Fold this sequence. Notes:
Blueprint: E1 3-7, H1 11-23, E2 27-31, H2 34-44, E3 48-52, H3 60-69, E4 78-82, H4 87-96, E5 100-103, H5 109-120, H6 126-129, H7 133-175, H8 179-203, H9 206-224, H10 231-250, H11 254-257, E6 267-270, H12 274-286, E7 291-294, H13 297-306, E8 311-315, H14 323-330, E9 341-345, H15 350-358, E10 363-366, H16 371-387
Parallel strand pairs: 1-2, 1-3, 3-4, 4-5, 6-7, 6-8, 8-9, 9-10
Helix pairs in contact: 2-3, 3-4, 7-8, 7-10, 8-9, 9-10, 9-16, 10-16, 12-16, 13-14
Amino acid sequence: MKRILIIEDDQLIANIYRNKFAVDNYQVETALDGEKGFELVNSFKPDLVVLDLMLPNVTGVEVLKKIRAQAGFEQLPIIVFSNTFLSNMVQEAWKAGATKCLSKANCTPKQIIDVVRGLLQTAPGSAAAAQPKATATASAAESEDAFQAEQVKSFLASLPVTLGSLRTVMQALAKSTDEASRVRNLQDLYRRVHALTANAGIAGMTQIAQMADAVEALLKELHEKPKNINSSTIRTVALSVDFLGVLFDKAKSPETRNAPAQIKANILVVDDEAISRRAVTHALEKAKLPCTSVEFPEVALSVLSERTFDLVFLDVDMPGMNGFELCTKLRTTHRNKSTPVVFVTSLNDFESRANSTMSGGNDLIAKPFVFMELAVKALVYILRARLAPAK
């Protein structure tokens, strides 16, 4: 019997995968932290390891390096769970010797089983393998459907409690008056969103998983770099928590649950400074959101008159026509009169926020911004538009 070690700090997620692997006739052990996981690699001697990169204290990348440094484990298959938006960490995992990198937000237990079978070159459980092929296939399909239905039911039942806990921690974060309490509340919120990403992925809730995945990456960055915690980033986190509540409510609809993971969006970025413009487009690229960038506001107005966009990012301080004036004018165009507009500006005072609203803007993000903050903001508006009824 092949042995699998799961290193995952969320007990619920670990148990789900343990049970799934056990049904497939694998012997399974779990570890809730990296140190325990490394100990089990030596004592349990698994044939394959499933490793979460986002572990507390000792990261998954560090565990991976330690395993590869041990004699006899150089070729041990190691599947790592990563965050879609933390590309640097994924690259570190590949360099450290990961056999396969999978995103928690986009990977179901069935897909994990298929990857494991391929790496270990094993068939499903012996009882199923002994049956005629057609019968075994039908039985496996029925079992998978029943498993997935149970995951969806359990996930939907947990959403009210999950949303309540997210909002409670978010309120505590917003009221934090010192760095220590902000970091503590951020860590709490991060762990909850981290678990949400995995649970939504297992249940096949693509939109929730995708949104939670992005928020998780933002919270991780803020926790590691507290100097980036400011009124702008706090507003973005609060916006994302509120929007997760909207997605939770929509998750009751099968159409929403089965929404495609790939986001198709048409975004316009307007900024006269090349470095700032590149920063915005890079942030959108991290979220896999294609965009068109324009330097001059007059050219942008012409483009907005000819093409329909899903979202517009506007700089405020531009020559000839500032962002507020451009926003007022784009609201008169037929194609983009209701397109969400987010101002990206170093002006973060009350007057600027008032002007952004009065000119028809929907939101504001402060320069210098964290890349993931802008990516999260973009995802909120793009996914929210998906939920709107077709006109």
